């Protein structure tokens, strides 16, 4: 697993280094800095490994600003993302998130998943993530993310390894492992 990650890391660093050339204006500078994101999150918005890397193209701006801030501040733990987020100044977080939000959410790859029954307690999630899980203030879009990514995120809130949103910690801790699994399967099927 580690062997496979090094080429991606080196690719991201190479793209980032290339992006450091002086662009014409602030918008071009943000776009150039964000080119490095494609090394993992995909040049076309489809992550290289959707099971471990989320879709960020078309994600909500408010959510992206918070995550970039949390990576920069150390409130969300991921060494690669922390290093990448620190290449942006605090003032660049909002324009960077706005740039990504304007990108089109990628179309589903492969065959559509089989329909999954709606879990009984799904309304607790829809209160923030909206009907159809398309996201909205302040919650991210979840529809289209992979089951593996969703369940890992939900379980990391439940077990307290991810604490950059204490509401999510509380909500996920109140759900059983089976409930989280059913919800992740349902959302991934959308």
Please render the helix and strand layout as text.
Blueprint: H1 2-19, H2 26-34, H3 38-41, H4 61-73, H5 79-85, H6 93-102, H7 123-129, H8 147-158, H9 166-174, H10 177-188
In words, what does this structure look like?
It is a single chain. The chain has 190 residues and is mainly α. It contains ten helices and no strands. The protein has helices at residues 2-19, 26-34, 38-41, 61-73, 79-85, 93-102, 123-129, 147-158, 166-174, 177-188. α4 packs across α5, α8 packs across α9 and α8 (147-158) packs antiparallel against α10. The radius of gyration is 17 Å and the shape is globular. The model is unreliable at 17-22 (pLDDT under 50).
Quick one: how many beta strands?
0
Terminal Cα span: 29 Å
Main sheet, how many strands, which sense, barrel? Answer: none
Number of helices: 10
Strand content: under 5%
The Rg value, from CA coordinates, equals: 17 Å
Poorly predicted runs: 17-22
Shape: globular
């Amino acid at each position: 697993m580690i062997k496979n990650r090094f080429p991606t890391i080196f690719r991201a660093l190479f793209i980032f280094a290339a992006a450091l050339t002086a662009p014409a204006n602030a918008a071009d500078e943000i776009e150039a800095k964000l080119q490095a994101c494609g090394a993992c999150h995909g040049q076309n918005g489809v992550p290289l490994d959707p099971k471990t890397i989320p879709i960020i193209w078309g994600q909500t701006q408010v959510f992206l600003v918070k995550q970039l801030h949390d990576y920069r501040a150390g409130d969300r733990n991921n060494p690669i993302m922390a290093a990448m987020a620190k290449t942006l100044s605090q003032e660049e977080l909002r324009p960077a998130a706005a740039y990504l939000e304007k990108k089109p959410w990628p179309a589903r790859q492969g065959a559509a998943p089989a329909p999954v029954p709606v879990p009984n307690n799904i309304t607790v999630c829809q209160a923030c993530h909206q009907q159809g899980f398309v996201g909205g203030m302040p919650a991210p879009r979840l529809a289209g993310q992979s089951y593996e990514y969703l369940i890992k995120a939900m379980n990391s809130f439940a077990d307290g390894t991810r604490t950059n949103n204490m509401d999510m910690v509380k909500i996920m801790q109140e759900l059983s492992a089976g409930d989280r699994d059913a919800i992740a399967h349902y959302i991934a099927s959308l």
